[in-house]
Specification:
mainly alpha; 4% strand; rod-shaped; 65% helix
Length: 111
């Protein structure tokens, strides 16, 4: 099992790094904080930490708490209905654009 950065920070650093808007700079900063804190740890100590993360309660993901769509990307199962709606809008836009271009070409040919 892989742990999210938020889950690791909540359980090892007692800080919720994604309490507001997602920020990749904050993610990078806390990744380095974790690296520097545990880089000299032995394999046994790291296994103990990992086991503690397994026993810790599941930390809700950013997408399930805030929004299923971040920057136009569906990041949760609930976001698929938005994805489907976006596809329909995109198809309408492309069809409309083709129609306008074909009308414009006909007008160009006539004149």
């Amino acid at each position: 099992r892989h742990f999210s950065l938020r889950h690791v920070c909540v359980n090892l650093l007692d800080e919720d790094i994604q309490s507001g808007v997602h920020d990749p700079v904050v993610d990078a900063r806390y990744s380095l904080v974790l690296f520097h804190k545990y880089r000299n740890s032995s394999v046994t100590q790291l296994r103990i930490l990992r086991d503690g993360l397994h026993r810790a309660p599941v930390t809700p993901s950013f997408s399930s708490e805030k929004t299923p769509v971040v920057d136009g990307v569906c990041v949760s199962a609930a976001g698929y209905r938005y994805k489907r709606a976006a596809r329909n809008i995109w198809r309408w836009y492309v069809a409309r654009k083709k129609l306008i271009l074909s009308q414009w070409q006909v007008e160009e040919e006539e004149s």
